[in-house]
Amino acid sequence: MKTWEGLSDIAELVEPQSTNRDDFIQECTTYRLNGVVAVYRTAASVSVTGLWDEELVNALPKSLKFCSSVGAGYDQIDVHACSARDPPIKVSNTPTAVDDATADTAMFLILGALRGFSYGISALRKGQWRGGNGEVAPLGHDPEGKTIGVLGMGGIGRNMKKKCEAFGMKTIYHNRNPLSEELAGGAKYVSFDELLAQSDVLSLNLPLNKKTRHIISTAEFNNMKTGVVIINTARGAVMDEDALVKALESGKVWSCGLDVYEDEPQIHPELVKNPHVMLLPHMGTYTIETMTAMEEWCISNVRSALETGKLRSPVPEHVNL
Ligand SMILES: NC(=O)C1=CN([C@@H]2O[C@H](COP(=O)(O)OP(=O)(O)OC[C@H]3O[C@@H](n4cnc5c(N)ncnc54)[C@H](O)[C@@H]3O)[C@@H](O)[C@H]2O)C=CC1
Ligand SMILES: O=CC(=O)O
């Protein structure tokens, strides 16, 4: 890629040769990688290295000071193990570049889940028009007048809010702290419990970490409106998938729209069987324009680190590192 090659004006570029984690750990000790200062980490590299957990982070070359990772989510990297190294490995992600495409995906899931479009789409493809065997697609719901609750009102959540307004939806949100009025743009800050109780559609837009894993589970579903619609474009494990399946079965949750799953690429079989739910295979940023923008953002972090000693967009945990 041109932008990557463009870095050769300021650095020697090397690419690891390994095809599995053990070989990569071994390769980190070789002369070729020993001396590497900054890493451009692609999303696909996880299939070779596995997670950047404590073991892997501690095996990385001692010379390494920066990791620029593609993607807004960085849950595959143990950022605390990176900070604990001496010197620390500073980590950056690619926020902002993902906002439009991921919010667009969320809108597709919101409309599809509210309207029950998945049912119609699969019936039609089976030659059954709106249904077969005596069953017809249930009537859906309009977005107009519905309250969307955003859990994690960051770049994507705020982008979604604007798009939801065009569909006549009202936005409430919960973050650990309220946003400035300017950033909130008229969305109302509510407590976590109020968000659960008041949302007609609940959208999960917060990062996955130890504190947010299964932040939505049985107790939280019990506190929601009956007939709520759940949208998840964040990470599968922020929600307890087994609890979601039970809440769908009981009718507590009317439908859901999911782009992400607890154990990708595995999907809970009951979700796959359910004709009513909208499911996508993690395609939030899967466009030429957005993936290009993410890669360029990521490489700009490498350039900034090499030229100034600072990453352009360090992850929140590393802003003051
Ligand atoms: N489906 C896909 O393809 C994509 C998924 N993502 C996922 O979406 C997530 C959000 O992305 P952005 O909006 O760019 O991140 P962001 O960092 O801009 O926003 C996250 C928001 O969540 C809030 N938050 C953090 N912990 C919280 C907690 N315990 N309770 C309530 N709020 C909390 C933060 O304060 C922040 O406002 C990413 O972490 C990533 O996992 C991002 C891009 C594409
Ligand atoms: O899942 C995608 C990301 O950017 O995070």
Question: Could you characterize what this model shows?
Answer:
This protein has 321 residues and is α/β, with parallel strands linked by helices. It is built from 14 helices and 10 strands. The strands form 2 sheets. It has a 7-stranded parallel beta sheet with strand order 6-5-4-7-8-9-10, with helices on both faces. A 3-stranded parallel beta sheet has the order 1-2-3. α6 packs across α8. The model has no long low-confidence stretch (mean pLDDT 97). It binds 1,4-dihydronicotinamide adenine dinucleotide (NAI) and the ligand O=CC(=O)O. The site of 1,4-dihydronicotinamide adenine dinucleotide has 29 residues, from α8.
